[in-house]
Specification:
- The structure is a single chain.
- By secondary structure, the protein is mainly α.
- The chain contains seven helices and no strands.
- Helix 1 (6-24) packs across helix 2 (33-57), helix 3 (61-70) crosses helix 4 and helix 6 runs antiparallel to helix 7.
- It is flat and about 60 Å long.
- The protein starts with 5 loop residues before the first helix and ends with a helix.
């Protein structure tokens, strides 16, 4: 995800969905929110999976065996054994992806639907038009959102949730 630039992901997604639209016969996916969601998923999947895998590696194998022995079903085993131990890792994975998506610019710029702006896009548009007084509020909002997410992640890591 991080080895390939976001612009390359954007072009690849545009080519794929453009070809799919040509096969279907009408414009459906090219500049849709679905294409943006696919690009975000492909780009930031490794960041979320790394957090979840580190959480699963910390679960003792005896708990895994005991949950298979005594649990009524897989759903109850997930709900009662795995989820309480994985809460902090799931939340930290979510926050890492949230911060990355909030500041993502190249793929969002290429794949966004019409009239869909993120804070990063708004900052980019205002700064490229040299409206420096107007760019301050969205920039501070983006910094504040990222700061709040980092504070929450710091507390999660410190407490272990």
């Amino acid at each position: 995800g991080y080895a390939i630039p976001a612009a390359v992901f954007g072009v690849a997604i545009l080519l794929f969905f453009g070809t799919l639209d040509a096969v279907i016969g009408y414009y459906q996916f090219g500049g849709s929110f679905f294409a943006l969601l696919v690009a975000y998923t492909l780009r930031f999947y490794p960041a979320s999976v790394t957090s979840v895998e580190s959480g699963f590696s910390k679960i003792d194998s005896t708990l895994d065996d005991a949950s298979k022995l005594f649990a009524k079903s897989e759903v109850s085993s997930i709900k009662n054994v795995y989820f309480p131990q994985m809460k902090s890792f799931l939340l930290s994975g979510f926050l890492i992806v949230f911060i990355d998506i909030s500041k993502e610019l190249p793929a969002t710029l290429m794949l966004r639907p019409f009239n869909f702006d993120t804070l990063a896009l708004r900052v980019y548009e205002l700064s490229s038009n040299e409206q420096l007084s107007a760019v301050a509020a969205p920039s501070l909002a983006l910094i504040a959102i990222s700061f709040v997410a980092l504070v929450i992640m710091g507390r999660v890591v410190k407490k272990g949730y």
